[in-house]
Design goal:
Length: 348
Amino acid sequence: MSSVILKNLVKSYDGKKNIIDNIDLKIKDKEFIVLVGSSGCGKSTILRLISGLEEITSGEIFVDGEKVNNVHPKDRDIAFVFQSYALYPHMSVYENIAFGLKMRKYDKFYINNKVQSVAKALNLQDLLERKPKQLSGGQRQRVALGRAIVRNPKVFLMDEPLSNLDANLRIQMRSEIKKLHKELQTTFIYVTHDQTEALTMGDRIVVLDKGKIQQVDTPENIYNKPNNKFVAGFIGQMNFIDAYIENNNFEINGGIFTTTLNRNGKIIVGIRAEKMTEGDINIFVKPEIIEMTGSERIAYFKLNGNTCSARLPLEYKIEENLNLKLSVNNMYFFDINTGDIITNEKKL
């Protein structure tokens, strides 16, 4: 069982502000879990703490049921795939993949069989004699994966492994990594700042902000049932509109909406960009910018003074004024002070 458990995990430098702030997380055996958040949120630091590359300030880490706080990194049976690939430039592909096994004193016959098997799985068998400088970015990334896979570790840690690749190659490598996870049946902990990677790859997603977990859930629930304004805004394209509720009614650019919220005063209304034309209340706005993406157009405009956007099919009519069609059933409501969700009237 290759579970990973973090209990009251804290990391700070020189006793200053916590980079990781009292995190509790249970990662199941064979799970593919994605840590996502903006730069500086602590996601890469969590990987380094799990691997032992950095010491924790307080708390506990368990791998496969064993507390590893004081276990040396090489004895944790964890493989780390870095953003920079971290290949040895003077070694061939074969030697890079075999390096970990050589350090563990396996015999040459065993090493050769393992390297050849992994190379075939990653389509590297014709590149084994090349040096890293002779490889493309995607090939280098596969070598880095091969070096990790060949050890059969309990846990794979991956720190933004696709960030240096172009868009098309990223899509291809996402599929390859998911396929590897299915074949290896091992726990994967994957860090990214890319919401598409998070949504398409993770069994569960951990959304982080300023060293704290904001939500842990399936991709579907993270997208459709966000806990707060941060999660709603980080995953997907969400518009946030200042509004004032009185007697269950609120106004957006002249349109009046009725809700069951049991409160009066200022709130924040959230509505996703793809839901701006799926309602029964018409609102007209003047587009400020229109972007063509190929499969759709994105229009930018103001609602109650807030900059918002709508994702529109190519056939959607855009004249001097854009006709939006909004529904309260597609809206989320957030507390203006805490950012926490008040209620979710979206009908799933």
